[in-house]
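User: My instructor asked us to take a sequence, write out its structure as tokens, and then describe one feature of it. I'm not sure where to start. Here is the sequence I was given:
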Amino acid sequence: MAQGVTAFLPESQEPVVPESLSLSVVVPVWMEAASIVDCLRPLAPLREAGHEVIVVDSGSTDGTAELARPLCDRVVQAKKGRAVQMNAGAEVARGNVLLFLHADTRLPDNALDELRWFELNEPTWGRFDVRLSGQRPLFRVVSWFMNKRSRLTGMCTGDQAMFVRRDLFEALGGFREQPLMEDIELSRRLRLVSRPWCISSPVVTDSRRWEKLGPWRTIFLMWRLRWRYWRGESPESLSKVYRSDVRND
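Assistant: Let's start with the prediction itself. The structure tokens for your sequence are:
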């Protein structure tokens, strides 16, 4: 190039940030035949981009695993229990970032772009904001409070699609295999390492549980369980309270 001549890159040749994100989406399921296809189909673009989706089934007898198999990279069988299942999925995952997705939760369309920003920054774990799928105005209020609480406390629930760097997850020993509050328990330990990376583009969680029990009853149940857990009550006893309340509906 001649001396004194400044070179400009055309817009189409702007430097590109190298892809460093390798994502493994772990989906724990049990008896989800009615919704598993709707859960996995939106994840196809992630798989096309080279990331993996792992479904962890716990002995479903309704065909969940068979329906999931063509739409994911592998189906793993594990004992029943969300924490047990998520640990089993993480154990076989290849990605450097693990994302734990409930079968009734949908990622936003820009999830991959948002997670690339996370990968390029310092935080070691994070979660998405959440929006309940129902159209009732109360659900918008509930979602706002869930997100606000999470930002203030640095705590994450499973409905918010928690993600964490794999090396840290393994160093902490993964989820404690308890029947309830495994997400809160892991959040407490992760929070000692860093504050969560909060993605404002919301995941959408099916509001059927809220509609079945009633919004106010569900709110009071969840807050009561978290309060008792914070006071030191065991996850095993709280799980019995939760199952009893749901069955009495």
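For the description part of your assignment, you could build on this observation: Residues 19-208 form a domain with the Spore Coat Polysaccharide Biosynthesis Protein SpsA; Chain A fold (CATH 3.90.550.10). Try explaining in your own words what that tells you about the chain.
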